[in-house]
Amino acid sequence: MSRTSLAILIAGSGLLVVYTARAQSDDKSPAELAEQPSQGPTPPVESAEQQSQEPAAPIALPTQPTTTPTPAPTPVNPWFVRPPFVLTAGAGADWKLTIYGFAEADAMRDSTRSFNDGLNNNVIAHPLTQAGRNPRLQATIRNSRLGFKAETPAFHSIRSSGVLEFDLFGNQPKVDGGGGSPGQPSGPGATTEAAYFNNAAFRVRHAYVKLEDPIVDVLAGQTYYLLGWQNYFFGSTCGFLGMPNQLFNRTVQLRLSHTFASNPINFEIAAGAFRPAQRDSALPDTQAGARLAINQWKGITTPGSGGTDARAASIGVSGMVRQFKVDPHAPLPAPTIPLIGWVIAANVLLPIIPAKDGTDRGNALTLTGEFVTGTGSADQYTGMTAGATMPNVYPLAPGTPIDYRGIALPNDVNGAAPIVGTPYTPNIDPGLVAFDRDERLHTINWQTFVVGIQYYLPPRGRAFISGNYSQGKSNNIASLFPPDSIRQTWVNALGVFRSSRYLDGNVFFDVTPAVRVGLSYQRVDQTLADDTKVHNNRFEMTFLYFL
Amino acid sequence: MRVKINVRSSFILGVAAFLGAASGLACYENSGSFQPVTYGARPWTPPDGWFSDNPYIPCATGYYVAIDATTCKGCTGPVAYALCTGVTTNQCTCGGPFWPGAECPKSIAVCCPNDFPPINWQENTKYSGPGWFGLSPSAATSTCP
């Protein structure tokens, strides 16, 4: 613990040194100032799932500006060029505010009542339940998005920018909502269907400040996790990211990074302190990674359903270490149980048929891949608990008669009442750790991989197809949630999955440079903790207008 | 005046320290380590016959059985407590000071000042096994300092 605190202090001190050095160099000569790289024309910033990449032609939305002013190359296919909405201020028009986002409408039909508008990693309802035997149709605009990026003139070579981005997922379902299995409410859960879809509320996605200079870049605020180098390696799908078994989430962080840039190759390293998954751990999560990009070998890629652009072939590795300190399922006060969670991820973006720029889409073929292994890491996947729950009840009094469900029989109701000490309220979100029958705490293990492919049809690439396959497996969740665990009344083996597979196929068409439509088939297969195999078929269509 | 500082080295040092600390955490704990259910709890092996008939019914976390302190390593008083951790009774703790609401084990009329059970734990009065593990109630009270 103290070592991590020391490391944070050292890292913070490094930052202070960097910027103190910059601030103290006010007496640079005009020549020195002239050598500072000026910030060239900045293309629009963020898009659906796009961030932190080199800018291309003014079509989609990179954030990382170039360090040297270069004339904009002529796009291969000007039809795709979509000028950004940029407001400027100041005498030199060098204070900029870029407005970006998109309006999106989706409709999806499922073969079960297991999911809300996003598939993510919900549990498919057991076939013994009503939800598992009946279909569902939903229509939503909640994935629409609005963002702002502000940039100010460079100050002693330090460039600063800030991003605020929102979507309409503000009214949230319960964390386990949509499961439809016993003990889990089906549908939106905490609100009515009408309010859930028609009164969609703002939700923050990104809110961060970024400082960039030739030595180190600093990002403070909420954006994607570093793990998996999100969002560089995302696949293309109509479904709402993250796909099942895909690393996808955002949180507050302080990230340091540096790119060793050259013409053929960029090598980026980054490390950061992240909001801990469990605040009672009293330590930040730590993530770090390295990424290699081959700059002249570019492939067309669409992270999610928008933000199509050319990205350099790249491989990335990243990792995370975190600590948990969980209250034991016993009378409190008692010593917390310390456990470690960790993750290692490897990603690849491989342009099989490369492209020259973001508009050179016809006959472009790109492969994306991700492999992840770790433990105590479910929060790195969207909406992922796999149905794992923590105790919320007292242990029954010794000798209390129970029925086959573990419920106290009426003739001894008094004995079933809470009688032991302080009520047990978990001090950690579900899905990360679990108690076994001996009240021993374990982190839940997960191993996942995702492979995606995207092909942009000739002649121009206005139409493109994509497919994704993902798989996830836990080798210990089933033993932590056994079907015969009648004394652990919070255990619902019918609502816990131990493995999951996902497959989708998508067709997109750009009606105009600003309008895209898509059709998709998505199938999720899961094996529940009681070995029941369940599946859900989804058909989805999407309409997007990009600002 | 210009201050020359090797900022690149500072950055690299900072990142290296960060990663070093993170990797150090990896050695901190794992789920195979002993997990005490109350302060001062330690591993304890129950004698033959304890909770052996139906391990799911007679034992629930939060309940204790008073035992001879000599069987719980490190205890000096006459009374110690065997603690149920779900399926088995595999931890014990020494008697401790009084806390509001604390009750002596049923068979001990008066607890010595440091013979009280752990905070918020209750006696397993329905336990019908060998019990006491050699502890004589009268012996417990007669040895108060």
Task: Write up this protein.
The complex is a heterodimer of chains A (547) and B (145). Chain A is mainly beta and 547 residues long. Chain A is built from 5 helices and 20 strands. In chain A, strands 2-4-5-6-7-8-9-10-11-12-13-16-17-18-19-20 form a 16-stranded antiparallel beta barrel. A two-stranded antiparallel ribbon of chain A has the order 14-15. In chain A, strand 1 (85-89) and strand 2 form a beta hairpin. The radius of gyration of chain A is 25 Å and the shape is globular. Chain A starts with a helix and ends with a strand. Mean pLDDT of chain A is 83; it is low at 1-67, 175-188 and 411-419. By secondary structure, chain B is of the alpha+beta class. At the A-B interface, helix 1, strand 9, strand 11, strand 12 and strand 15 of A face helix 1 of B.
Please report the number of helical segments of chain A. Answer: 5
Shape of chain B: globular
Strand order of the largest sheet of chain B: 1-4-3-2-5
Total count of strands of chain A: 20
Structural class of chain A: mainly beta
Using only CA atoms, what is the Rg of chain B? Answer: 24 Å
Oligomer: heterodimer
Mean pLDDT figure of chain B: 73
Q: Which pair of protein chains has the largest interface, and what are the residue counts? A: A-B, 68 and 54 residues
**CA(first)-CA(last) distance of chain B:** 75 Å
